[in-house]
Amino acid sequence: MEGYPHFLASSSAPPFLHFQVRHGTPLWCLFWGWVGIKCAQGQVIVIQLPWKGLGGKITEKIGQLQALRKLNLYDNFIGGSIPSALGILPDLRGVQLFNNRLSGSIPPSLGACPLPQTLDLSNNSLTGTIP
């Protein structure tokens, strides 16, 4: 679906957002940027989209954002499970997904994240242990 980046499988993407990738780099990152997304050297490093009414799921494709440092999607309506690809992002320092509709268990890969500083998954429907 056109709209939000493919890792957010949303059915309510605003029509003014467009996501295409050329050689691993999102075009909007190269040319004009996007409110709530910070890029450096053509790579997405921060996704900051709290309180946007976002729904859908975060897919494993988020693992393609290898330079991602912070993922802040709190206070939305994001459901489904947390993708294990989040835990293998080498520069990931902060994940704030609290106050959403996430379910399932926390992937073990998130516990092995090399540079964790903040992780807030509260107020979701997660089960199991914290890795």
Describe the structure.
There is one protein chain. Helices cover 7% and strands 28% of the residues. The protein has helices at residues 27-31, 108-111, and strands at residues 8-9, 21-22, 25-26, 37-40, 43-48, 57-58, 70-72, 79-80, 94-96, 101-105, 118-120, 125-127. A hairpin with a 2-residue loop joins strand 2 and strand 3 (25-26). The longest helix has 5 residues, at 27-31. Residues 9-28 have low confidence and may be disordered.
List the helices and strands and how they pair.
Elements: E1 8-9, E2 21-22, E3 25-26, H1 27-31, E4 37-40, E5 43-48, E6 57-58, E7 70-72, E8 79-80, E9 94-96, E10 101-105, H2 108-111, E11 118-120, E12 125-127
Parallel strand pairs: 5-7, 7-9, 8-10, 9-11, 10-12
Antiparallel strand pairs: 1-6, 2-3, 4-5
Residues in helices, as a percent range: under 10%
What is the averaged pLDDT score?
A: 79
Largest sheet: 5 strands, mixed
Proportion of residues in extended strands = 25-35%
How many individual helices? 2
Question: Which structural class do the helices and strands define?
Answer: mainly beta
The CA-CA distance between the termini, in Å, is: 33 Å
Placed side by side, the strands forming the largest sheet appear as 4-5-7-9-11
User: Are there runs of 5+ residues with pLDDT below 50, and where?
Assistant: 9-28
The radius of gyration is: 14 Å
Find the count of extended strands (DSSP E, 2+ residues): 12
Order of helices and strands: EEEHEEEEEEEHEE
Shape: globular
